[in-house]
Amino acid sequence: MAAYGGVQAGVHGGRGTATGLAPLEVPESYVRVPLLDPHADAPAYAVAHAYQRFLDDLREGGTPGVPDFAHGAARHRSVESAITTA
């Protein structure tokens, strides 16, 4: 489990015929920044993964997992709409 702002966060689940919940580990295929410990460096780990996804997006020519300018503009319109209708 990782600590975020002093709060422990993690994913628990069951496998196969298990009836209880147990901590689930992140599969190695999801680890893009292997030099950081996700437990000790949780904030840095999250930021490093975001930057790595951005770099992968630049190298691969656009992947659906990385927000672009259109995503940002849509979020700003949503926030503006919420402010003006409140």
Description:
- With 86 residues, the protein is α+β, with helices and mostly antiparallel strands.
- Helices cover 42% and strands 12% of the residues.
- The chain is built from two helices and four strands.
- The protein has helices at 42-60, 69-85; strands at 2-4, 7-9, 12-13, 22-23.
- It has a two-stranded antiparallel ribbon with strand order 1-2.
- The termini are far apart.
SSE arrangement:
Elements: E1 2-4, E2 7-9, E3 12-13, E4 22-23, H1 42-60, H2 69-85
Antiparallel strand pairs: 1-2, 3-4
What's the gist of this structure?
The protein is α+β, with helices and mostly antiparallel strands and 86 residues long. Helices cover 42% and strands 12% of the residues.
Key descriptive features of the protein:
86 residues, alpha+beta, two-stranded antiparallel sheet, 42% helix, 2 helices
Mean pLDDT: 81
Residue stretches low in confidence (pLDDT < 50, at least 5 long) are none
Structural class: alpha+beta
What gross morphology would you assign? Answer: extended
Tally of extended strands? 4
Residues in helices, as a percent range: 40-55%
The sequence of SSEs as H and E is: EEEEHH
How many distinct helices?
2
* Main beta-sheet strand count, sense and barrel state: 2 strands, antiparallel
Amount of beta strand: 5-15%
